[in-house]
């Protein structure tokens, strides 16, 4: 029976894939009159994104989540394609009988666990839905308002099944296509599927909350909701209910003073101090209390860097902030992945030199990390040199934090903010050599010139 289910699902995926390829070919033919190479590249990439997004919406929750994860990989996909995938929405109809799932998972009747547990969810997405409740407990926790997250039935089984089918297709493609083999299609797909499956075990998310709470216990006005372990399990997680306004729903003029800077420093701490990053950052995942405290939610997808990879990540950002062409080339050879013998390092160095010369002529106030990282990723894609996936998610986290910061404070010099935060990190890690200190001093002079009023 299971084999039959695989066959039916695999056949459906195959049909949607072929229909999407046919649709893409027809629409691509309509772009033939476009002569400008860059304009054509951008329009083709956007078309691929639209067709891919449509297919993923047709194939359902696992593929919607896959598309969302793909949208965090600018090292693999063009910006125009990623922009299309970011439109994927995982808001799905609520599933019934969530209370029965809670009782089975926690091994007790609802009335023994909660004074209230609302039947209708307050949010429903592709992996889980959330219900408001009130705890029933001995001691001071009795009567606490809580949010109860419940996994969709069979969500893990479906994710693992779809993942195995996709990996089968990917390995077949690698056998018949050198391009797919060179791109390590199956390896990257395994990484995507792992990220989706990780979100289908709420015990992992509960541990992530505790890790974030520990990392930020000395940081004022930052909260991660408390999880109640005796009301949580693999398919159910109960945490405190936090009220507040979504950040993107508050007019900038009404935000607490210094809030934008505070939020940026929260994200920079995740990136550079902890190496433990919320990998699904967007304004809907945090709320602001009247006193300016920010509460961060939905930590099922995180990225933890090893100490070695964290140093590699910090070194990449040092190259962006104050490195020269030689620094970049050394970093790319040391820390990024490529197939030996396929990279023309001389041509790559020319492109890095062009990129470096371009951005160094611009004011730091006009620079954005998102633009810089997109440029260096584009150079890497061209030459077959890519960062390891774990580092990529950290870079995307930094770019996402920058984007949120720009929404809250459009005039911020985000390049300077990152540079200022990074120098003490380099000092603490004994990564400030004489040449790096000289480069940092030159960068400080450049920033001061950029900030000075015109004569």
From TrEMBL:
RNA-binding found in the keyword field: no
Transmembrane regions listed in the UniProt entry: 6-26
Residue intervals of the Protein kinase domain: 116-448
Domain of life: Bacteria
Family matches, as PROSITE patterns: PROTEIN_KINASE_DOM (PS50011)
InterPro entries (UniProt xref): ABC1_dom, Kinase-like_dom_sf, Prot_kinase_dom, UbiB_kinase
CDD domains per UniProt: ABC1_ADCK3-like
Keywords tagged on the record: Membrane, Monooxygenase, Oxidoreductase, Transmembrane, Transmembrane helix, Ubiquinone
Molecular functions per Gene Ontology: ATP binding; monooxygenase activity; protein kinase activity
Pfam families attached to this UniProt entry: ABC1 (PF03109)
Family: Belongs to the protein kinase superfamily. ADCK protein kinase family.
Protein name, entry field: Ubiquinone biosynthesis monooxygenase UbiB
Organism: Sandaracinus amylolyticus
């Amino acid at each position: 029976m299971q084999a039959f289910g695989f066959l039916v699902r695999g056949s459906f995926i195959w049909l949607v894939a072929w229909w999407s390829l046919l649709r893409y070919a027809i629409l691509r033919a309509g772009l033939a009159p476009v002569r400008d190479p860059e304009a054509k590249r951008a329009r083709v990439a956007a078309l691929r994104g639209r067709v891919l997004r449509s297919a993923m919406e047709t194939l359902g929750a696992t593929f919607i989540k896959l598309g969302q994860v793909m949208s965090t990989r600018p090292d693999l996909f063009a910006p125009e394609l990623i922009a299309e995938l970011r439109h994927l929405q995982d808001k799905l109809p609520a599933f019934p009988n969530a209370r029965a799932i809670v009782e089975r998972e926690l091994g007790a009747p609802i009335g023994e666990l909660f004074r209230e547990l609302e039947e209708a969810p307050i949010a429903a997405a592709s992996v889980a839905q959330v219900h408001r409740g009130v705890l029933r407990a001995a001691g001071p926790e009795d009567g606490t308002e809580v949010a109860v997250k419940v996994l969709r039935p069979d969500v893990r089984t479906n994710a693992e099944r779809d993942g195995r089918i996709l990996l089968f297709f990917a390995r077949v493609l690698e056998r018949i296509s050198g391009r797919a083999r060179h791109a390590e299609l199956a390896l990257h797909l395994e990484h995507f599927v792992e990220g989706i499956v990780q979100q289908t075990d709420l015990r992992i998310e509960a541990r992530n909350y505790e890790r974030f709470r520990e990392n930020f216990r000395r940081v004022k006005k930052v909260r991660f909701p408390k999880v109640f372990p005796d009301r949580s399990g693999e398919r159910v997680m109960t945490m405190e209910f936090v009220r507040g306004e979504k950040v993107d729903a508050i007019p900038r003029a009404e935000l607490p003073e210094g809030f934008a800077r505070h939020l940026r420093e929260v994200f920079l701490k995740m990136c550079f101090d902890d190496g433990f990053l919320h990998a699904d950052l967007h304004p809907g995942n945090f709320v602001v209390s009247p006193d300016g405290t920010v509460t961060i939610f939905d930590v099922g997808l995180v990225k933890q860097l090893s100490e070695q990879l964290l140093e590699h990540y910090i070194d990449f950002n040092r190259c962006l902030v104050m490195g020269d062409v030689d620094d970049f080339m050394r970093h790319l050879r040391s820390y990024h992945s490529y197939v030996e013998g396929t990279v023309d390092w001389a041509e790559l160095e020319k492109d890095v030199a062009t990129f470096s010369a371009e951005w160094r002529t611009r004011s730091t106030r006009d620079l954005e990390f998102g633009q810089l990282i997109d440029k260096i990723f584009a150079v890497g894609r061209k030459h077959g040199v890519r960062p390891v996936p774990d580092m990529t998610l950290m870079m995307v986290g930094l770019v996402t934090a920058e984007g949120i910061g720009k929404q809250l404070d459009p005039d911020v010099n985000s390049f300077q903010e990152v540079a200022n935060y990074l120098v003490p990190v380099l000092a603490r890690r004994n990564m400030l050599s004489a040449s790096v200190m000289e480069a940092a001093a030159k960068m400080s002079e450049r920033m001061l010139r950029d900030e000075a009023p015109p004569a």
